[in-house]
Design brief:
mainly beta, seven-stranded antiparallel sheet, globular
Amino acid sequence: MSLDRLRTFGQMRTAAAAAAGASPLLTDLVTYYKLSDRLASHGGSSYDLTENNTPTYISGKLGNCLHCDLTEHSTLARGSIGNLSPGAHDWSLSFWFATLSGTSSSIRTLISVWDDGGNQKEWRVFYRGSDNRVDGLVSYNLSAAAQAGPYTIAGGLNTGEWHHVVLRYTLGTGIEVIVDNDVAGKVTAACTTMTQGTAPFVIGGLWSSGAWAGPSALTDIDAVGFWYRKLTDAEIGQLYNSGSGLEYPF
């Protein structure tokens, strides 16, 4: 489909707009959550989020961010969004996170479209502090999943230290996990196709058997963007911005 057309699932920046001076990062941007303004969706879509269990917002990587701890079990979510579970299309997810417990041995899901208790598993990304890892999963049939990882963070997952994560899916190939612009060190998994399901989009955790799954991610999360295309290596470098980040509208 030409980038000069509007996608049927929402208004997005086109190639013509990019040529007129807008950032190419606006092309095929489905939604972007600054989280400085809490629930608002940016990028032309109307996918505002809903709060679960009274989330807290604190100073983050780029303005304020979502703060998840074990007391709150809090998440931000949006009911099933077909455009964030794109099925037979390329897509990319970008966000920043800082762990609140770098030595935790528990798997902490950061962002997901994934029902852990039912056959509605599409994709998710998690970390585990005890072995300094970040992993991405994609499901090819809503049940079984391919796992890209672990990506081991050099120097460890230290409490309060921000890291940039990109999940990049290529139809016919599979998933890549790129952390802190380390494209050369990316981890991958083959998954030639994905099936679109009905699980909600969740920041700070996941859905399980019709309920919010706790505990939450035990982390701070900021600057969440989702594209209906494969971000280029150069664009990932722009978003990382030498560790300083780059906020919408780029």
